[in-house]
Amino acid sequence: MINRFDPEREVIVVGAGPVGLTAALLLADAGVRTTVVEKATAPGDLPRAISLQDESFRVFDQLGIADALKAESLLDTGSRYFGLGEQLLAEARPVPSRLGHPAKTQFDQPILEQLLFDRALAHPGLEVLLGTEALRLSQDADGVTLEVDSPEGARTLTARWLIGADGGRSFTRSALGIELMGSTQPQRWIVIDLLNEPVQRDPFAEFHCDGERPYVLVPGINGRLRLEFMLFDHEDGDEMTSPDVIRELLRPFRPSLDPADVRRAAVYVAHQRVARSYRSGRAFLAGDAAHLMPPFAGQGLNAGIRDASNIAWKLIEAVRGGATERLLDTYETERRAHGAKMMTLSRRIGAVVMATHPLATRARDLTVQLLRKAPAVHAYLANMRFVTPPDYSEGLAVRPDARSAHLPGVTVGRALGQPTVTPVMGVLPADGSPGTADRAAGLDAFLGRGWSVIGLGADPVGLDPYFTAIGATLVRLDSPHGPAAAVQPGGAGVVHVREERETLTAGLPAEPVFVVVRPDHYVAAVFTPGDQDRVVQELRTHLDDRVRAARQPTA
Asked: Residue 23 in 3-state DSSP?
């Protein structure tokens, strides 16, 4: 395939799985000239990951594929844990999401991959090199060089930055000499994906910890069903995936099994590893290239989508100018800590599920039953609060001080909630599309793709020029109870919306308060007019508007 770009590309993404294509599309949508390098010639057709969280859907909504994926997914699902004798130990559902999407969803990975793949191939600003294998990687102070073997022969690609999203056996990680730290889970599992399931099942992933052969059952929609069984040391993996053994394993669930309904049967070994570093110079790791975790918490792909969103917006800023090394270093600060935390959580849940020793299983069941009697512990388990969201307060976030406003619905370093809002005075959403100009929509539709500054009950006009210099969308968000909200439009250039239910505007102080929102919808700062200078000074150490202005072409 001929490179369509002149001048040369700005970012190379190695790997066209869900993580790589998500990063590439976010970059290309922002006008960053991006090339994807992928050894395969078609999207993946294996149902590997099966669980998505609200934050992943928030990213897919930005890419325009969320609704199509939801139509093929089982929404708002929970988990059930069964102990000895199939006794229900715990039933858990995540707390209702603040982000505007189902908190937990069972999806089908091939459908996601096809949606991303189709959009990537149709994108006029994205070069996709299929059947192309990365061979050698080098870099210097100005950019990266990737030598590849393509259908047209050997090629050399150059770019300013590179993202390695090329899976657990990552070429990029190996080429950069980055160690993958951790261990491999000794237990093997067989995963069987079925079609045409006749039983209508409750929307719960079931973990059956019977102490004999632990297994997991995960329903989908349109007749999809996943079953996973733990294997024992003496069992041969090839033999366990034979048609006769598969039929016996599935007999309690599908007494009459049509072999054509077996979509996949494979043995896997889970790894619990994290890359020593997520960055080496101008190259970054994302997804399984950066972390591998057991499947029990359903976090692997979700962590990868968070990686893609996080690094994409920071490279967009680097290409536009003004991004400091401190900003780029926050990718590892923000993503590695949470990835490692989710890996540990997955390992611990797995240890509970995979227990087979009689004393250990009885002690486990008794412990869970006792803990459930404590209201606080019961709520912690039942609401799945053990799956903690990312906290980026150690990254690009301006820590509150004594002068800062404290809002009950907004936390610096955490994802901004997405309430439903109504436009005031027929204002268009930030992307200019008229579809939501006269009706309620999620707040994201009005924030745009970059930075935003939200005035809670106040106009964000007359603020420091820094915010407009970095391209921030200015938004006024009014309480549903404010009598003046329906009649007073926002200032010039301000997107003016009103909450349908008091969420972000709850508990506002008397003085104006403003929320700085990053392109990935995490809160970077909360400030009042008296605290503005401190906030701008700190943000400028990550994104310098003066450097960006100096790089802009003059008229």
From this structure: helix
Q: Say which range, 2-11, 80-89, 286-295, 297-306, has the weakest mean pLDDT.
A: 2-11
Q: CA-CA-CA-CA torsion for 175, 179, 183, 185, nearest 10 degrees? A: -20
Contact 10, 33 (CB under 8 A): yes
Q: Look up the pTM and report it.
A: 0.91
Instruction: From 450, 467, 461, select the one nearest 533 (Cα to Cα).
Output: 467
Count, residues in the chain: 555
Which of 9-13, 427-431, 479-483, 498-502 is the most confident on average?
A: 9-13
Return d(Cα 191, Cα 365) in angstroms, integer: 25
Whole-angstrom distance, CA of residue 225 vs CA of residue 237: 21
Using the CB atoms, write b or e for 84-99: b if 16+ within 10 Å.
Answer: eeeeebbebbbeebbb
CA torsion angle 339 341 346 347 (round to 10): 120
Residue closest to 522 by CA, chosen among 428, 433, 444: 444
User: How many Å apart are CA 445 and CA 460, to the nearest integer?
Assistant: 18
Count other Cβ atoms within 10 Å, centred on residue 532: 16
- SS3 of 24-46: HHHHHHCCCCEEEECCCCCCCCC
Return the structure tokens found at 400.
């509150």
Contact between 23 and 163 (Cβ < 8 Å): yes
Q: Do 66 and 57 touch, CB atoms closer than 8 A?
A: yes
Query: What's the CA gap between 269 and 228, in Å, rounded?
Result: 12
Annotate 372-434 with three-state secondary structure: CCCHHHHHHHHCCCCCCCCCCCCCCCCCCCCCCCCECCECCCCECCCCEEEECCCCCCCCCCH
Rounded Cα gap, residues 21 and 121, in angstroms: 10
Looking at the chain, the whole-number percentage of residues with pLDDT higher than 90 is 64
Q: For the segment 434-459, what is each residue's pLDDT rounded down to a tens digit?
A: 444 457 899 999 998 999 999 998 88
- CA separation for the pair 405, 397 (Å, rounded): 15
Cα–Cα distance, 84 to 428 (Å, whole number): 57
Mean pLDDT of 51-68: 96
Site of tokens 């959009």: 119
* Strand pairing report for 452-456 and 473-478: parallel
Q: What is the dihedral of CA 528, 394, 454, 94, to 10 degrees?
A: -120
Distances (CA, A) of 54 to 66, 95, 96, 309: 11, 11, 10, 14
Q: For 272-374, where are the alpha helices, taking DSSP H only?
A: 300-320, 325-353, 358-371
